[in-house]
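Run log, item B.
One chain of 250 residues. Sequence copied directly from the ordering sheet:
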Amino acid sequence: MALTGYIHQLESFGCADGPGSRFIIFFSGCPFRCLYCHNPDTWEMTRGKPYTADELLDEAESCRDYWGKKGGITVSGGEPLAQLDFLLELFTKAKERGINTCIDTAGGPFKREGEWFEKFKKLMEVTDILLVDIKHIDEEEHKKLTGLTGKNVRDMFAYLDEIKKPIWIRHVLVPGITDNDEYLTQTRDFIRTLHNVERVEILPYHGLAITKYKDLGISYPLEKTESPTQERVEKARAILECEKYVKWKD
């Protein structure tokens, strides 16, 4: 029986999810419960639709003419690493078809041990680039924001640096949580320790997902939080030295 993965939805044309134009595959399932999560409908894995790797790749290749030289597929979520076996099969078959591969991850499931890590190392052999989130640089604040530790996530950054795997870093700017010059400076100092960073992006918080929470009967913890001002976004970009890392020209 073919291995199947649970998929939340597919997007045929994405321009902000890795180099070039991308076919986006949103995986179901995520261990984090980020206070600002805009996809709470992806939390439970079995809410997704089952697909085989070949079914996904056949659908992706129907859009291949639009990818250009840089494009390909990006897996997002949810959290793709929560379905590691299926993701490894998907990317292995994608490389057999000559498809560029990208993972959008927050690193929640990462662990540098046992069978899981052996599979992750194999996954990196068939992964071209990763989009990685820094949820919060402070450990206690990370736990408050996501519900889980960030120690393993920082270790994932270290490993990706060791193997020289290209990454784009994304950081959500949330007033009262991450929109803090001290935390931003600590984040910048952490990024400076890495040598594989090709882009750093600030993502301004927005509360557009509140209707999803209402539809799911879930209370939205940041209902009264407003989006950061453009001035604060630019200040955050300056602190994180975003302009320094632009190596891809769209």
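Observations after the first pass:
- The longest strand covers residues 4-14.
- DSSP finds eight helices and eight strands in the chain.
Flagged for discussion on Thursday.
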